[in-house]
Structures are given as structure tokens and as C-alpha cells.
Amino acid sequence: MNFNNLDLNLLVVFDSIFDEGSITKASEKLNLSQSAVSNALNRLRYTMKDDLFFRSGDRMQPTPAALEFVGPIKKALELKQQLDLWDKG
Q1: End-to-end CA distance of the chain
Q2: Residues forming a β-bridge with 61
Q3: How far, in Å, CA of 75 to CA of 42, rounded?
Q4: pLDDT for 34-84, tens place per residue?
Q5: CA distances from 30 to 3, 34, 41, 45, 56 (A)
Q6: In the structure, how many helices (H) and strands (E) does the chain have?
Q7: Which of 15-19, 27-31, 69-73, 82-86 has the lowest mean pLDDT?
Q8: pTM to 2 decimals?
Q9: Residue 53: in which H helix or E strand, if any?
Q10: Measured between alpha carbons, how far is 60 from 41 in angstroms, rounded to an integer?
Q11: Could you give the C-alpha distances from 54 to 3, 23, 63, 79, 83, in angstroms and in order?
């Protein structure tokens, strides 16, 4: 897995789907279309070589790999937010 060219926006989509449990709710939270979120998830699935989420009833459930990735992804997004605030300061 090569993370050198990973689009950080894909991590934002992952985080939103994880938190919301729904592509529809994640798209509303991110102010994106459902198809944009779905396409981003497909790009991330290809990059991570895992499905990451699967439909169970009316929710998107994380795969075991997604559960491993969620902690580092949340930390990376938090660090980026801190750096953005620092850059503005």
C-alpha cells in the first residue's frame, strides 16, 4: 500500500462513513452528493485493498481492516486540523 499519493479527502470520507454508518448521512455531513461519497469510498477501497464497509440492514458496518485503520485515520485528521489552525495563526 502506497500512501505517498493518498488524497487526504478520502480519509475525511472514511471518517464520515465510519461515524455516520451511512453513505447518505456522510454525504449530507460533507455537503457532497451520494455518488461523490460512493466514488471516494471506491477509490479508498482500491487503495486500501479492502472493502472497508459492508451493508448490514440500513447501516454501513466497518470491516475488521476498517476497525484497524480508524484510530490512525482519526489521529491523522486531528493532526491535519491542528496544523491548519497553526498555519492560520
Answers
A1: 34
A2: 54
A3: 22
A4: 999 999 999 999 999 999 999 999 999 999 999 999 999 999 999 988 888
A5: 23, 10, 13, 19, 22
A6: 4, 2
A7: 82-86
A8: 0.89
A9: strand 53-56
A10: 12
A11: 23, 11, 7, 28, 33
